[in-house]
Specification:
single chain; alpha/beta; Rossmann fold; Nucleotidyltransferase, domain 5; 8-stranded mixed sheet; 6-stranded mixed sheet; 19% strand; elongated
Length: 507
């Protein structure tokens, strides 16, 4: 063990972190570091902290959780990776860890690209700072792990996987871009990750959780913690919210100013760390849970049922190609099958497999979008399947599916993790024209739920003919008049004891 000064002194030490944190532009981060590590603060430090913490006073003790909502290029990754390296190297396991037990400093990134950024920062600290490099007993880039002689492992993970963190004592957990964790890629939600981390911190007195991100839509762990603790004088949780140029005064703001003109809502979130008012979750996860039939993975074809197949085509190099089959049972839409072919794959071979599955379900037609122009039509036609356009954009498909999902018992979904994760990850925004638009988040996917939406809408929710709209209108008029439209054909009109409009007709 070596004696390492506190985080702020280390940021100013020429033999430690000063190369990375030199200059006055880092003074704001140093004030935050003092407040969140119980270090002495000058009046200027206190004033800055209050300006980015909603006016609250600095905590009286070292907080357990810290959340930083910062704009792009504000230095979030640089600062937290430095904190991670300092925390790992300065930890003394005596009296805390049992023989053979190893503490974890874990950085959880939203994807592999973001994880690579954090890994490169952490590795540089332990390669270029001599006291730190002397502590390294193993550095495995393939596993993104640095093992130290003081019973600490520094790990960088891509994707929120709570199971990987259970059973290990956590010294520090950094959740990088945590506002984007709850995506449509099948990753576990940020709330489950948070719930898995906190018990693992319980046996280490100085353990901390740091969440950093640019704000996104108004839901999830980061939004809930911001709503609950921002500006409140609590000692266990600190929430910081600051624009890019506040945390990084040396930032060139020309790109920011141009983007403010082009897309104000996005620029307010990306540069000023403000929550997006134009972006909300498409559907409540609890609603999706109610629609899922637990344990139902797939339904086999059954004679006498008319099935509808939906596909989301792909060229085979980047996105998945997906198939969904559904049918109607009265007013219910039932999802029978979901298949996904992940890249790389041969589009022609996948089209052949889809054709074979469709024939098992007694259909020779698939519905899809206009992706790829004529090639999906040609490839499916070669295998005896007619490829037809769904007639709705994917956004309109989702908006058609939503009221049915909100009606208990109207839609039955399969117990399919990718399907439900992508559905819960959809985002709804109002465009400048005033129309609602639904799409997957940036960097996410919706290929599975898109095929399912095509199949379900085509099977059970699409209008059946030109008169469908008028029939639906009359049905609703009956309901408003106190009549049950499902009982009218078997009921003598004169016996109905409810007010009804006089249309001049008798049924």
């Amino acid at each position: 063990m070596i004696e390492i000064p506190n985080i702020v002194a280390s940021m100013e030490h020429p033999g430690l972190f000063r190369t990375w944190f030199d200059g006055a532009s880092w003074n704001g981060w140093k004030s935050i570091a003092k407040a969140t590590n119980g270090l002495p603060m000058s009046p200027a430090d206190v004033a800055f902290f209050k300006s980015v913490a909603g006016g609250r006073e600095p905590p009286k003790r070292r907080p357990r959780e810290i959340y930083v909502l910062g704009g792009r290029r504000a230095g979030k990754d640089s600062y937290t990776s430095g904190v991670a390296a300092h925390t790992a190297a300065s930890f003394n396991p005596r009296g805390i860890l049992r023989p053979g037990e190893r503490a974890v400093v874990v950085c959880v990134a939203v994807d592999k690209d973001q994880g690579r950024i954090i890994w490169n920062y952490c590795r540089a600290f332990f390669e270029r700072i001599k006291p730190f490099s002397a502590m390294v007993t193993r550095l495995a880039e393939s596993d993104n792990i640095i093992e130290l002689c003081n019973q600490v492992d520094v790990i960088v993970m891509s994707g929120a996987r709570p199971a990987a963190l259970r059973g290990r004592p956590i010294l520090l957990a950094v959740l990088d871009e945590c506002a984007h964790f709850q995506s449509g890629d099948g990753a576990t939600s940020d709330s489950e990750l948070h719930a898995a981390i906190l018990p693992s911190m319980a046996t280490i007195p100085q353990a901390q959780l740091i969440g950093i991100s640019t704000p996104h839509r108004r839901d999830g762990l980061l939004f809930n913690q911001w709503r609950r603790y921002f500006g409140r004088d609590t000692d266990d949780v600190v929430v910081i919210q600051a624009a890019s140029h506040v945390l990084n005064p040396s930032l060139d703001t020309r790109d920011r100013d141009r983007q403010l003109q082009e897309d104000p809502a996005r620029a307010q979130a990306e540069w000023f760390a403000l929550w997006r008012d134009d972006l909300v979750s498409f559907i409540d996860p609890a609603t999706v849970d109610r629609a899922v039939v637990a344990g139902r993975i797939e339904l086999p074809p059954s004679p006498g049922i008319q099935y509808t197949a939906g596909v989301d085509p792909s060229g085979g190099s980047s996105d998945s190609m997906t198939l969904a089959i559904a049918h109607a049972d009265g007013e219910r839409g039932i999802l029978d099958l979901v298949r996904e072919w992940k890249p790389p794959f041969s589009p022609d071979l996948v089209c052949r497999e889809i054709a074979e599955i469709c024939r098992r379900y007694g259909t020779t037609t698939v519905l899809g979008d206009n992706y790829g122009g004529e090639w999906p039509k040609e490839r499916f036609r070669a295998h005896g399947i007619d490829y037809q356009l769904a007639g709705k954009s994917r956004s309109d498909l989702y908006l058609t599916l939503l009221p049915a999902l909100n009606t208990p018992g109207r839609i039955e979904l399969l117990d399919h993790k990718r399907l439900t994760a992508q559905l819960c990850g959809l985002e709804r925004r109002t465009t400048r024209s005033g129309k609602d638009s639904v799409d997957h988040p940036s960097g996410g996917h919706d290929d599975v739920i898109n095929a399912a939406a095509i199949a379900l809408v085509g099977a059970a929710l699409a209008p059946q003919g030109a008169a469908w709209g008028w029939l639906e209108y009359m049905r609703r008029e009956c309901i408003k008049a106190g009549l049950d439209p499902d009982r009218l054909p078997n009921t003598d009109y004169d016996d109905v004891r409810a007010p009804a409009p006089d249309w001049g007709w008798r049924f």
